[in-house]
Amino acid sequence: MLREKFREFSRDTSSIGQERVDALNALADALIAAGHSENATVAEWKDGLNEAWADLLELMDTRSQMLAASYELHRFFHDARETLEQVRHKRKQLPEEVGRDLNTAEAMQRMHSAYEHDIQALSAQVRQVQEEAGRLAKAYAGEKAAEIRRQEQAVSQAWAELRGCSQGRRRLLLDTVDEFRFLRAVRDLLLWMDGVRLQIEGQERPR
């Protein structure tokens, strides 16, 4: 907000001021060309005016750059905090249940695939925070640079933990589904063998 207001103020001031300076320069030139008795004084005042105007333009430009840098830094901290919060929230959403049978385990597996797709959308935000931190850390020194690095490290660490936990759960669900499939296959085979045994025992014995 402050940055936008100053940009508007700077633009208007530069435009109006330049018109006024140009008009006074033209008047000074006209007086000098007409051979005014105070030519030297007029020329001196003209030079002083242009110098003061150049100083004012430089001051406005410096102020504009400072506000832009401050806005950029503020936006980075805001984005980093928001990304960190989203990553931590996703970590809390990761369930521990793996399912009581094959059907529920496979359902959990499908849910986890959707979950992984959701967290992948966060990777772009994390990468942006990391890139911005790298760029801003070069422009700042001391406590601000240290705070930039701390924010980036907090986001990167939380993201690594989230991905690690997500991958661990994916492996656990794969193992669980494989186990339930194996147990189902064992049960089906045992049932089949029981059936064969019953058929054999039910046949007439030779006389």
UniProtKB/TrEMBL annotation:
The keyword Repeat applies. Keywords: Actin-binding, Coiled coil, Repeat. InterPro entries: Spectrin/alpha-actinin, Spectrin_repeat. One of its GO terms (molecular function) is actin binding. Transmembrane segments: none annotated. The keyword NADP does not apply. Signal peptide: none annotated. Residues 105-139 form a coiled coil. This is SPTN2 protein. It comes from Smutsornis africanus (Double-banded courser). The lineage of its organism: Eukaryota, Metazoa, Chordata, Craniata, Vertebrata. The gene is Sptbn2.
